Amino acid sequence: MKKEQPKKELLLISTSTTHGTGYLEHCEDEIKALLQDRKSVLFIPYARPGGISHTDYTAKAKEAFERMGITLTGIHEADNPVEAVEQAEAVFTGGGNTFLLLRQLYAKKLLEPLQKKVEKGMPYIGTSAGTNIAGKTIGTTNDMPIVFPKSFDALQLVPFNLNPHYLDPDPNSTHMGETRETRIQEFHVHNSQPVVGLREGSMLRVKGEKMTLLGHLSARVFLQGQKPMEFKPGDDINFLMEAY
């Protein structure tokens, strides 16, 4: 019997806003290409710890998607969040604090429904924290652990970890602390999965078993026990989709 091919449709974006652009403007074309003829998106605003309510955060996302001709609703408006996921045409998870986001997903029993829908082909879009949770664990997030989730295990939509907002060392800085690269190497002392550092404006497009780096910048890939590698848009990075 022929093995059924994966149906995953993912867009994992480093950041929602780049310098000089509005919310989701820099990735609008990629979002529209992912969603194709779908006209509605379910928004998960759980990552924001304060400063903006779920309602206001959803309104901000709604404005951006309306610009694309797509209706957006917040999952917090649903009487039954699990049913909302099961009925969704597509899901967008916004940025904020990754620890808070994952704790909320566990508390509302949403990880398994999200995994099942994505496996069946429902498009998933993430920015920042929403991208972090697509990986194996959230162990490479830049966020402070302001709350403690049930587990660091994430959605595992891809078999590696992500580090959105990846920053290269500033050669002119007098900062003597750890660099982002150092912290990821520390992660690899205790964890074996690859880590993809996504610079601002970069994103990963996953279609089934194939993955493409989008944007204008290279991505920095870390493998346990090896020197970091740079991959440009157009390079073959599909080895990262293999199981580790």
UniProtKB/TrEMBL annotation:
Keyword annotations of the record: Dipeptidase, Hydrolase, Protease, Serine protease
EC number(s) given by UniProt: 3.4.13.21
SUPFAM superfamilies reported for this sequence: Class I glutamine amidotransferase-like
Cited InterPro entries: Class_I_gatase-like, Peptidase_S51
GO molecular function: dipeptidase activity
Pfam families on file: Peptidase_S51
UniProt KW Hydrolase keyword: yes
Record bears the keyword Protease: yes
Primary enzyme class: hydrolase
Similarity-based family: Belongs to the peptidase S51 family.
PANTHER family membership: ALPHA-ASPARTYL DIPEPTIDASE, PROTEASE S51 ALPHA-ASPARTYL DIPEPTIDASE
Name used for this protein in its record: Dipeptidase PepE
